[in-house]
């Protein structure tokens, strides 16, 4: 009258093994679930009772006690329906109890016994491979779990199929992942952008070194259009990056059906009304926020000054560390958040300060207040400032520009140089992440380049941190050119990206 099987929940993006124990005894009918279940798990007893009966199995009257171990970890979601139902059937004697110990089960039950798609299968697949257990999931999730080649994953459509599979009455083929089905596809291209040569060059430099970028210009000047095409010029994701990104989307329940690994670089563009919790992540059981969903891709913040001060200040830690740590009473969840920040803003509330074609209606104090909504510490974490000018008619009606594919080839070559350079330094993958000691080692200047940097720093009042940013940018520009030496023209271009953004900016950012 006792049975046990295994399942998994997730904390952060890591899977946690759960033992599902069931004890059945004759007596007054009662169904109790213990082990820190949330309301959704407690409600599962109604789904399980109906699913068992509608799958053709009698539900004998008696006391059913379910324990979910470890008891000090909160269990949430409906993914425990299937393992609980199978353990109950094993306790009733309909399924061999010893067979259940070879498997890990996940799945939400409908009242008729069919299985619905659940989230968090990829971390469970990694866990099942490590534990040496076969993983049984809803059919819609099987391809997702098969991404982990060491995991033995099977998809079932119903509780009855799961029972028949465990008892040997229904042979199933192991789910197989096919990388050919996950080719990165983008529905936009840099060739769509007319003119804007300076801004596109800045975007290429930003992509090559994973530098954060802020674009300032009037409405309709092409800032958003350029930002949305940034993922198309980033290097293809490595296998490790694809798995890590897919784990985040799996946990968040945002993985599209039929997709094994996410190969497209993520592009997240939250509305400026987003809360700091939605942006960074959180909740009683921590969930990934926008910064983690943008991991290995681009986080685009349009109308930057319109975001709440609290949300913008919360960005500082993930921008610096590349991770988000959310502490709760039960522990700390860690989500990766290594993204490229691309932001855009109008220069003033009406949007036309410094625009030669339209008159600005804002007072100078209003412009300063508007631009001052972005704090100095956040601006310090932005490497490239770009002034975006409105297009002239001839530019707008001109020929198509260079396609993303060609730009991506140059960016990929520059990134490969960086990966080779930093292969002895774990956690460093791009020039933007260089520490002071690495800058000293890899960003040495000749006399003429040093003289230019000194002159620029003196005349423009560039801070020590600004000088560090210029050195990193100079290194990236040299990498795009395919040279190990940083020359004068590399420094000169980098200085341009650190200048105040033309006529649009009234608050010093250098």
Find the CATH superfamily of the largest domain: P-loop containing nucleotide triphosphate hydrolases
Task: Report the major sheet.
Answer: 5 strands, parallel
CATH topology of the largest domain: Rossmann fold
Q: Helical content, roughly?
A: 25-40%
Number of domain modules: 2
**Global geometry:** elongated
Question: What is the correct CATH architecture of the largest domain?
Answer: 3-Layer(aba) Sandwich
Alpha-carbon distance between the two ends: 72 Å
Short description:
The protein is an alpha/beta fold. 38% of the residues lie in helices and 17% in strands. The chain folds into 2 domains: 2-177, Ribosomal Protein S5, domain 2; 190-504, 3-Layer(aba) Sandwich (Rossmann fold), CATH 3.40.50.
What does this protein look like?
With 510 residues, this protein is of the alpha/beta class. It has two domains: 2-177, Ribosomal Protein S5, domain 2 (2-Layer Sandwich), CATH 3.30.230; 190-504, P-loop containing nucleotide triphosphate hydrolases (Rossmann fold). The chain contains 22 helices and 18 strands. A five-stranded parallel beta sheet has the order 11-14-17-10-18. Strands 1-2-4-3 form a four-stranded mixed beta sheet. It has a three-stranded parallel beta sheet with strand order 5-8-9, with helices on both faces. The longest helix is centred in the C-terminal third of the chain and has 18 residues, at 404-421. The mean pLDDT is 90.
């Amino acid at each position: 009258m006792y049975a046990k099987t295994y399942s998994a929940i997730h904390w952060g993006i890591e899977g946690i093994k759960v033992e599902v124990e069931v004890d059945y005894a004759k007596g007054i009918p009662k169904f109790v679930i213990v082990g820190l279940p949330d309301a959704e798990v407690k409600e599962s007893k109604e789904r399980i009772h109906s699913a068992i009966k509608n799958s053709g199995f009698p539900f004998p009257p008696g006391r059913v006690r379910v324990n979910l171990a470890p008891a000090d970890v909160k269990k949430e979601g409906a993914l425990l329906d299937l393992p609980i139902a199978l353990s109950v059937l094993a306790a009733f004697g309909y399924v061999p109890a010893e067979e259940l110990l070879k498997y890990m089960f996940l799945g939400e039950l409908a009242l008729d016994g069919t299985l619905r798609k659940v989230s968090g299968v990829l971390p469970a697949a990694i866990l099942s491979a490590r534990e040496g257990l076969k993983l049984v999931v809803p059919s819609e999730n099987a391809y997702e779990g098969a991404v982990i080649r060491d995991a033995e994953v099977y998809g079932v459509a119903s509780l009855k199929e799961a029972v028949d599979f465990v008892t040997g009455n229904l042979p199933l083929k192991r789910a197989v992942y096919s990388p050919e089905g996950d080719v990165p596809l983008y529905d936009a291209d840099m060739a769509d952008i007319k003119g804007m040569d300076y801004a596109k060059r800045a975007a290429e430099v930003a992509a090559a070194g994973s530098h954060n970028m802020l674009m300032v210009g009037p409405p309709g000047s092409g800032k958003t259009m350029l930002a949305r095409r940034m993922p198309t010029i980033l290097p293809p994701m490595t296998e490790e990056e694809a798995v890590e990104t897919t784990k985040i989307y799996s946990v968040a329940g945002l993985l599209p059906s039929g997709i094994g690994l996410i190969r497209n670089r993520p592009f997240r563009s939250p509305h400026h009304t987003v809360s700091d919790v939605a942006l960074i992540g959180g909740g009683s059981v921590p969930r990934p926020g926008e910064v983690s969903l943008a991991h290995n891709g681009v986080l685009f913040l349009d109308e930057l000054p319109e975001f709440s001060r609290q949300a913008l200040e919360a960005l500082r830690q993930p921008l610096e560390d590349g991770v988000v740590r959310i502490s709760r009473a039960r522990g700390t969840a860690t989500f990766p958040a290594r993204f490229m920040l691309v932001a855009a803003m109008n220069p003033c509330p009406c949007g036309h300060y410094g625009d030669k074609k339209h008159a600005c209606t804002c007072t100078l104090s209003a412009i300063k207040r508007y631009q001052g909504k972005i704090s100095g510490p956040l601006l310090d974490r932005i490497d490239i400032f770009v002034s975006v000018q409105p297009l002239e008619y001839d530019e707008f009606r001109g020929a198509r520009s260079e396609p993303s594919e060609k730009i991506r080839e140059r960016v990929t070559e520059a990134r490969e140089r960086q990966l080779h350079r930093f292969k002895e330094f774990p956690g460093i993958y791009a020039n933007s992440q260089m520490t002071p000691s690495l800058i000293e080692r890899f960003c040495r200047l000749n006399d003429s380049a040093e003289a230019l940097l000194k002159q620029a720093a003196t005349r423009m009042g560039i801070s020590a941190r600004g000088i560090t940013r210029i050195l990193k940018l100079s290194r990236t520009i040299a990498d795009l050119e395919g040279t190990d030496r940083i020359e004068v023209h590399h420094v000169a271009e980098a200085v341009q990206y650190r200048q105040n953004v033309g006529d649009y900016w009234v608050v010093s950012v250098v």
